[in-house]
Specification:
The protein is of the alpha+beta class. The protein contains 33 helices and 27 strands. α10 packs antiparallel against α26.
């Protein structure tokens, strides 16, 4: 029987399924058979994946070349007999690791969330008795009874269904509940969303009743397959972590190479080996950016806080920057681009078209006849069709905290909201009495209710159902004024086809007057002679803010693609309405369906994903495959979703974005970011913040490295010249730690630069430091080298002690760093263009740094600790001049680049760097 678990159960008739599973519809399974099957198949639970221990995950935070540099720095410092400084550096390492560990500690809880989603009870037939058992006890062959409000506990082949509808959005992406038919048969390759003779674990019964036989449990269910996909999907490195690792490795090799070269030069020149080794170690200490990893982590954390204020919760720290690298957003449709609320959009009544405004289930909005206001006669066709939708209805609308929700079927909720927009709800609740009901059945494709009319003995049956069924049962229709008129069936069918072509779900409405003595309605009475009231077309509409967000993303050079399990026509309509197909306005979007994807090879799919905007009727495996295909094209992919079916793709994507309100726990645990307002527009805001974070990270790196380079060059020059070191290793540690913590972090507070969302996405393969920044780092490093060396020698020439000369050299490095900080507030613009006082922390940090330097220079305890000495006032004027010179050099370099970029833009006929 184990081999039976892989069968296409939707392709087999129910009796054949019962025979293969050796089950009995009247008795279910007996006790001994249950025990045998439980031993063979195990419990109906998902196998939890073995998790890495907390200790190993914490130690993994140290697996980074920058951390290696810090540990080497601590070791070197300890060897230089400065244990206190070594302890400080080790504390930086541990704090950095703790922050990263805490941010990422919950990143691998997806499988546990899936397991929790299956801890429900089931109503099952065993030994001829109906009983409630934990869903975990189910085995293949069990007979399970499901009804409205219950969760499907395992994968079932339905053997009986009465008005059964199952909400499968979390598994398939289908926006509306799916009507089930136990008698239906499907081809073996039918997609998951189209198998209406099956019910799958974790989905919810929204209406009706059904009986099914368990065909798969635990890991063999469809949700179990998703669990396996999720566990097999590797956790990708972000562009930031990849580039930081590459950058750190290069930096490590460069430092070791320069230290080795320094030692070799010194020994070759005949200098004592021990003294030369000490100088080489000093050079290594000088070039190690001790505070850089902590500064990067803190910058990302600041980005996390900013995004939280914009309703985006970051679960994995590097995701902050990766958002700014996004080149493609793959968006789910239901609940992400759309409101996940059915809304009537068009009404055809009395041969006239009406358009309905308003959003969701709120009974607020207007209904306007195309080209004119709606008629006001009390018996208009429009009012009658809305009354039919209101009365032939088993659902209700509830307002909670200003938000309207439906209790019952979403389609019926849309009809109630439409009626409320014409003020019919209150009247119907008090004036019409329901006498009888024919519930919706898939074989009849309609629902009917019988009502007593107010102030009349007449009874009226209202019917709603499929247009192809009801139109042909009608003998007449209402005119615009609500009076009987000749029926034009061809016009009615054309109206239905037009709505369907627009991606709307179409319902037809009719009525039949019956004698006062009637107390029941029967199907044979509704087979002919009906009066057609018209059609209502509804859709889960796009969020208005999503339309603006899609446009903003496209302007930023980011492609937006829809990947959904819903129908192709519906997906194409939403794509057109949201502007996904901006290159072909007004035309239906080209859609690639899941069935077509099966025929695509990997190479063909990689080509297809580049030009296709909409993918419909796709399975969880295909969503995952689409993300992989885009990544194979070199894209940085942000994937949004809210359902269980989205989880593997969310984890595979560079950035997985889950919905906080409607999203399942599984989707949230697999994601890197959660939107607290379920708003696609928040993604655009988060990308804007991500770009700003990367700007600030680049500024911090570009500001930090010249100080280390300059100090290294000072040590190297001293070795080459065979003179005493102008700066001691303990003084170098002071410079590196104070500047990184007091000055460098202020760049993390810089706001977004103008036009940040008009830039194209960054090339994921581009290095952190461009040739422009490398040149700038070299220029500042040379200013530090020449300025510090020149003033060091000047002070000695003026008769200053070596301690005083070294104090001047240290202050030169600090002063150049302060002025270069002003340069780095923008890598392209002048500080005066972005606003001198736009960063309120800037001058606080500079003031704090100057106070520390005064203590460093004049406090006796600091003089003893760092081998410094007080310097005269005129020395400060020379120090200030060197710092100002560095600022002017870099501003001239930036101005030259802006001028060159403007010339190139003029020649190409494009907007210049200041346009817009």
């Amino acid at each position: 029987m184990q081999t039976l678990l892989g069968k296409h159960w939707h392709h087999l008739p129910a009796p054949e399924t019962m025979r293969l599973l050796d089950s009995n519809l009247e008795r279910g399974l007996d006790l001994f058979e249950l025990q045998h099957r439980r031993e063979r198949f195990g419990r109906n639970e998902l196998t939890p994946r073995r998790r890495t221990s907390a200790l190993v995950r914490f130690l993994h935070q140290f697996n980074n070349p920058l951390i290696y540099i810090l540990l080497a720095s601590a070791l070197i410092t300890a060897l230089l007999k400065d244990p206190l400084d070594a302890i400080v550096i080790l504390l930086v390492v541990v704090i950095n690791a703790l922050v990263s560990y805490i941010q990422e500690s919950r990143a691998e809880e997806s499988i546990e969330a899936l397991a929790r989603s299956m801890t429900v009870e089931a109503s099952v037939l065993r030994g001829g008795r109906q009983q409630r058992v934990p869903a975990a006890d189910l085995v293949p062959g069990d007979i399970v009874l499901i009804q409205s409000g219950s969760q499907v506990p395992a994968d079932l082949r339905l053997v009986a269904a009465r008005d059964l509808q199952v909400a499968e959005a979390s598994l398939t992406g289908e926006s509306a509940p799916v009507a089930k038919d136990a008698l239906a048969l499907h081809d073996p390759d039918t997609t998951l969303a189209d198998r209406n003779n099956m019910a799958y674990a974790s989905t919810m019964v929204s209406y009706g009743q059904g009986t099914g036989v368990v065909v798969a449990t635990g890991d063999y269910t469809e949700i179990g397959r998703i669990s396996q996909l999720l566990s097999q999907t590797p956790t990708l490195e972000t562009p930031l972590t990849t580039r930081i690792r590459q950058f750190s490795r290069v930096l490590l090799y460069a430092i070791l190479a320069m230290a080795a070269a320094t030692f070799a030069v010194g020994v070759t020149r005949g200098q004592p080996a021990l003294e030369t080794l000490s100088a080489a170690i000093a050079l290594a200490v000088a070039m190690i950016p001790e505070g850089l990893p902590a500064a990067l982590t803190i910058t990302l954390s600041i980005g996390v806080a900013r995004m939280a204020r914009r309703r985006a919760i970051i679960r994995k720290l590097p995701a902050v920057e990766t958002l700014g690298s996004t080149t493609v957003i793959c968006s789910d449709k239901t609940g992400t681009l759309t409101q996940n609320q059915m809304t009537v959009r068009e009404i055809w009544a009395g041969g006239e078209w009406h358009e309905v405004s308003g959003e969701g289930y709120a009974p607020q909005g207007s209904i306007t006849r195309r080209g004119a206001e709606p008629p006001t006669s009390p018996l208009t066709a429009l009012q009658e069709i809305l009354r039919a939708g209101l009365l032939c209805n088993d659902s209700s609308l509830v307002e909670q905290e200003g938000r309207w929700t439906v209790q019952g079927d979403p389609t019926e909720g849309a009809l109630l909201a439409a009626a409320g927009k014409l003020g019919l709800a209150a009247q119907a609740a008090t004036s019409f009495r329901r006498v009888d009901t024919i519930p919706f059945e898939s074989e009849h494709q309609y629902m009917a209710t019988l009502h007593g009319m107010p102030q009349s003995a007449e009874l009226v049956a209202y019917i709603k159902g499929a247009a192809e069924v009801l139109i042909d049962r009608c003998r007449d229709q209402l005119d615009p004024a609500g009076k009987p008129a000749a029926l034009d069936p061809e016009a009615a069918h054309q109206a239905a086809d037009q709505m369907a072509a627009d991606g709307l779900r179409v319902l037809a409405f009719a009525r039949l007057s019956l004698p006062p003595e009637t107390d029941r309605i029967h199907h044979h009475r509704l087979g002919f002679g009906l009066t057609l009231l018209g059609l209502q077309g509804m859709i889960d509409p796009p969020r208005p803010e999503a339309i603006a967000a899609v446009r903003a993303a496209q302007q930023a050079g980011i492609r937006v693609k829809m990947i959904t399990g819903d129908h192709a026509l519906t997906a194409a309509t939403i794509a057109r309405q949201t502007g996904l197909t901006e290159h072909a306005p007004g035309r239906p979007a080209a859609v690639l369906t899941g069935r077509a994807l099966v025929a695509h090879s990997d190479a063909e799919l990689i080509e297809a994903v580049e030009s296709t905007h909409v993918f419909a009727r796709v399975t969880p495996e295909q969503k995952l495959r689409l993300v992989e295909a885009l990544q194979a094209r070199g894209h940085v992919v942000t994937m949004t979703g809210d359902g269980v079916n989205d989880a593997p793709a969310l984890k595979q994507a560079d950035i997985g974005v889950a919905m906080g309100i409607t999203g399942t726990d599984v989707a949230k645990e697999a994601a890197d970011m959660v939107l607290t307002d379920d708003n696609f527009a928040t993604i655009e805001a988060a990308i804007e913040e991500g770009r700003s974070v990367f700007d600030n990270l680049t500024k911090i790196i570009a500001w930090t490295l010249p100080t280390n380079l300059g100090q290294g060059l000072i040590i190297l020059a001293a070795i080459m010249l065979g003179i005493a070191l102008p700066i001691l290793p303990i003084q170098i540690l002071w410079i590196n730690m104070t500047t990184a913590t007091i000055l460098g972090l202020v760049l993390a507070m810089e706001g977004r630069e103008p036009g940040i969302m008009r830039r194209p996405p960054r090339d994921p393969e581009a290095p952190i430091l461009t040739r422009t920044l490398l040149l700038r780092i070299f220029l500042v490093g040379m200013v530090i080298l020449l300025g510090a060396f020149a003033l060091y020698e000047w002070e000695l020439t003026l008769g200053a002690s070596i301690a005083e000369a070294r104090t001047v050299a240290v202050n030169v490095v600090i002063m150049v760093a302060i002025f270069y900080l002003l340069n780095c507030r923008s890598l392209t613009e002048s500080m005066f263009r972005i606003g001198v006082f736009s960063n309120r922390w800037l001058f606080v940090s500079i003031g704090g740094m100057l106070v520390l330097q005064l203590l460093f220079t004049y406090l006796p305890a600091m003089n003893r600790l760092f081998s410094t000495a007080p310097i005269p006032l005129e020395a400060w004027t020379r120090i200030l001049a060197v710092g100002l010179t560095g600022y002017v050099v870099i501003e001239i370099e930036k101005a030259a680049r802006r001028w060159s970029a403007g010339r190139r833009a003029d020649r190409a006929g494009r907007p210049g760097p200041h346009s817009g």
